[in-house]
Structure formats: structure tokens, C-alpha cells
Specification:
CATH superfamily: Glutaredoxin
Oligomer: single chain
Radius of gyration: 26 Å
Number of domains: 1
Largest sheet: 4 strands, mixed
CATH architecture: 3-Layer(aba) Sandwich
Number of helices: 6
Helix content: 40-55%
CATH class: Alpha Beta
């Protein structure tokens, strides 16, 4: 063998590279993925809305009106679930499918979806149509979460 030290060096380099990159048997186990937020309870009738508002007391009620075929609605769904997890002390969150629920659509005057309604003490204090930045929804929750009444919430939002 002419250059045995070159073969040894090449082998040592290969072993070092494999160990540095890690082989499937040598890698640390991956961290478990964070659990997905729970799906939101469904609202199907105006009676369901009344029950949700009654249950919430002075907390806010947020209803995400959507349809399965609506792409912006599908994009908004995980955002609303995140907001529900982040603001669970301020509000109760629900989803309502407008397909087949003409009564709800008519009761809330829905003309476009996604449509997110913010309620406090049995009154709608704010509503957003379309896909908005998460920060906008969070701002409404923060401002109205501190308000003592629906009127106080509306007044605070008008100042913003």
C-alpha cells in the first residue's frame, strides 16, 4: 500500500462527519409537537347564542361565522382557536356555520364571511367582516375585556 495514512485519514474524516451530522440511531428524540388548540363549540340557533351569552355573564362572547367552502374562513379558523386559548379568561369563543343556518345569518345581518361578532352583556359591541390581522381581534378582546359594560366597550373602541 502506497499511502496507508491517506486511507486512515479519509476514514477518520468520514466517521467525524457522520457523527457531526448524526445518524438516525444517534439523534436526540424530537420534542413533542405542541398540542393543537381545541376545536371551538358550535352555535347553530339563536337559542344557542342566548345560552352562550347567559353562561358568559360579564365575559365576552366571540362568534366566528364561517362556511366550509370559504378559503378566508379556513385561514381564520386556527387564528380564532389561538385567540381562544390566549384570551380564555376574557371571553368564550364559538363557531357558527352559516350554511343551513339562515336564522343566525339573518339575526346578525351577515352579508359576508368570515364574520366575527364580539358580544358583551347580550349586546353586539363590534363585528369584523373578512380576514383581519390577529392583532386586530386581540385588540378588541383586550379593550372590551376591561370594559364594565357593552356601552363602556363601545366607548373605549371609539377612542382607539
Amino acid at each position: 500500500m502506497l499511502f496507508p495514512s491517506i486511507k486512515v485519514f479519509a476514514f477518520q474524516t468520514l466517521i467525524a462527519a457522520v457523527l457531526a451530522a448524526g445518524s438516525p440511531g444517534c439523534q436526540k428524540p424530537k420534542e413533542p409537537a405542541a398540542a393543537a388548540p381545541e376545536p371551538l363549540p358550535a352555535i347553530a340557533t339563536t337559542e344557542d347564542v342566548k345560552a352562550a351569552v347567559s353562561k358568559a355573564g360579564s365575559r365576552m362572547v366571540v362568534i366566528d361565522f364561517y362556511a366550509d367552502w370559504c378559503k378566508p374562513c379556513r385561514a381564520l379558523a386556527p387564528v380564532v382557536r389561538e385567540l381562544a386559548a390566549e384570551h380564555k379568561e376574557k371571553a368564550d369563543f364559538y363557531r357558527a356555520n352559516v350554511d343551513g343556518n339562515a336564522e343566525l345569518s339573518e339575526a346578525f345581518g351577515i352579508r359576508g364571511i368570515p364574520y366575527v361578532v364580539f358580544m358583551k352583556n347580550d349586546s353586539v359591541v363590534y363585528a369584523l367582516t373578512g380576514l383581519n390581522p390577529k392583532e386586530r381581534y386581540a385588540e378588541i378582546l383586550t379593550v372590551c375585556g376591561k370594559a364594565a359594560s357593552a356601552a363602556d366597550c363601545i366607548k373605549r373602541l371609539d377612542k382607539e
